[in-house]
Structures are given as C-alpha cells and as structure tokens.
Amino acid sequence: MKKENPTTENKQESPKEPMVPESSLKQALEEAAKWKNEYYKAYADLDNLRKSLEKDHSEALKYRAEGFLENLLPALDSFYIALESKPSSEEAKNYNIGFQYIYNQIQNVLLAEGVKEVVPKVGDEFSPVNMHAVDTVESPGPANKVAKVMMKGYYLKDRLVRPAMVSVTKEMKKDIAKEPSDQKPLDNKVTEAHKA
User: Fold this and answer.
1) Structurally, what CATH architecture does the domain formed by 66-171 represent?
2) Is 111 within 8 Å of 86 (Cβ atoms)?
3) What pTM value is reported for the model?
4) What DSSP letter does each residue of 92-105 carry, written as one string?
5) How far is Cα 144 from Cα 140, in angstroms, rounded to an integer?
6) 168 within 8 A of 145, measured Cβ to Cβ
7) Are 53 and 146 spatial neighbours (Cβ–Cβ below 8 Å)?
C-alpha cells in the first residue's frame, strides 16, 4: 500500500485573492486616515459645543434674578430714601419702624439670592470698579474721595448690576488774585534813588 502524503492531499487550493495594487492600498489608507481625522474634529466640535451650552446654562441659572433686580432697584431706592427721613410725629415713627422691618425682610431675601449692596462711606477712595461719579465737588482735602453717596450700588453674586452713584472731591482752584506775587520787593536803596 502506498502511503499518501497528508500535506498534499489535505491541501485544498485556496481561491486566489485578487492582487491589490500597492497604490490603491496606499490611497485607501490615506482616505481612512482622512475620515478618522474628520471624525475626531466633529467629536471635538460637539464636545466644545456641549461644554459651551453647559456654561451658558449655569450662567443663566446663576444670574436669573438680574432682570428682576434691575426692575426692583427704583423701589428699593425710594424705600431707602423714605426711611432716611426722620418722622416728626409719634404715629409716623411707628410707621417708620414697621417700614424698616419690611425693608429688612426684603434685604434678607435679596441677600439670600446673592445680592450685595455697594454703599461707600464719605471719605472713602473713589473706585471706578463699583462707583459712578455723578458730580465733582471742590475740596481743600485730598482729591478722588467720596464726598456724598446719592444711590447705593448692587452686585448680583460677582456681577455688578448698578454702580453706586457718588459725588467725588477734586482739588480747589487757586484764585489768581489771592496768590502771592512772584516779584521781589524792590530794595530800599533803589527806591530812594528814584525819589531823589
């Protein structure tokens, strides 16, 4: 009996794979790399858009009360001015105490929402960051100091809603007529010589 060679017998002819030219393979790899790059760009753009929308949403939530506060400020200013005036009668004093209590409640609610007042004191240094100079007043003292507070300013969290309205000091103008003369007095000998 003849021994059969298992390698030749079990060897099946595989279908011939078409030969792909090397240039087509290179072109396909370049195109795959191009589309992979486009995918990563689109993914990055989408991720940036998502982050931007999340930031906008959190900002909108953080400052949601800004429009409401801007509309409420004139009423708060009027309330503050009314409470600053001193009542003349006993009955008016009792009303004033009640109004002060209500005003304090409103202030507490605003504070809970993140509203902070900007109330500079007379003599404080003028700060253009949170103050608006409405007027200037001549002063013998230093310049750029708060002379008078006309309206409070307000922050909502870390955003300035309205600056404090203030008058600011400036240096006094020197009166020319009152300034001492720069001329030196004439020597007595010279004046006597002119007289003779």
Assistant:
1) Roll (2.30)
2) no
3) 0.61
4) HHHHHHHHHHHHHH
5) 12
6) yes
7) no
